[in-house]
Amino acid sequence: MTRRSEALQHRDDIRQQNGLVIHDLGVTLPEEENAARVVRETDAGAVIRGNSSFLTVGFIIVAFGWAWGARTIRSMALTLREREFINMARFSGANTFDILLREIFPYVTAYMLVGFINTVLFAINTEATLAVIGLSKVEVPTLGSIIFWALNYNALFTGNYVWLVAPIIATVLLFLGLFLSSTGFNAAFASKRGVL
Predict the structure, then answer these.
(1) Where in the chain are the domains?
(2) Is the predicted pLDDT of residue 173 greater than 90, yes or no?
(3) I need a labelling partner for 84 at 20 to 30 A (CA). Which of 15, 102, 142, 151 fits?
(4) What are the φ and ψ backbone dihedral angles of 193, each rounded to 5 degrees?
(5) Helix, strand, coil percentages, rounded to 5, for the chain
């Protein structure tokens, strides 16, 4: 190995280590608590508290929820790069586009579908959590804002149980439905690949 290639390898190793530190930091920090803390404890939080647009809530969700997806995509890319069927296709003379289309895409289709369902689930639950504690736009009727107003007007003490129980049941059923569909798709694609 030449000095130049050793220096490039060392630089790539340092980049990977720094990237892993940032990913690990993002994965270990709880997203909803940090999102609430940013809005609650900063000067910007005083401006947007209770009047946050969905764009602001979306930015907060992305800012604190990116690390898990980045970590799993990185690990999938690193393992796929070293798989035998990729090397076999490469040695057989397939170009990069053919390898992507015929070898990698069928393998990651399940992950993309399950990841999309889990992202929707995460976004709905995080928005509901932020709305319940009053950090989202509570004038827009979402499941979280309905719970916020039910708690704000003491629905339990006034006997309006339906106002509080209905959005909670809807949220739980939505969570279970999306979770079960995600698990079902994952099992179906795994059996198709021959994993299960």
Answers:
(1) 3-193
(2) yes
(3) 15
(4) -80, -10
(5) 85, 0, 15
> Which of helix, strand or coil describes residue 138?
coil
CA dist list (Å): 62 to 32, 37, 80, 128: 11, 15, 26, 15
Q: How far apart are CA 194 and CA 184, in angstroms?
A: 15
The pLDDT tens digits for 76-113 are 888 888 888 888 888 899 898 998 888 888 888 888 88
Among 76, 50, 69, 188, which Cα is nearest to 120's?
A: 69
pTM of the model: 0.62
Averaged pLDDT, 128-156: 85
Measured between alpha carbons, how far is 128 from 142 in angstroms, rounded to an integer? 7
pLDDT tens digits, one per residue of 43-71 = 444 445 556 677 777 787 788 778 878 88
Q: How far apart are CA 178 and CA 99, in angstroms?
A: 32
DSSP 77-126: HHHHHT-HHHHHHHHTT--HHHIIIIIIHHHHHHHHHHHHHHHHHHHHHH
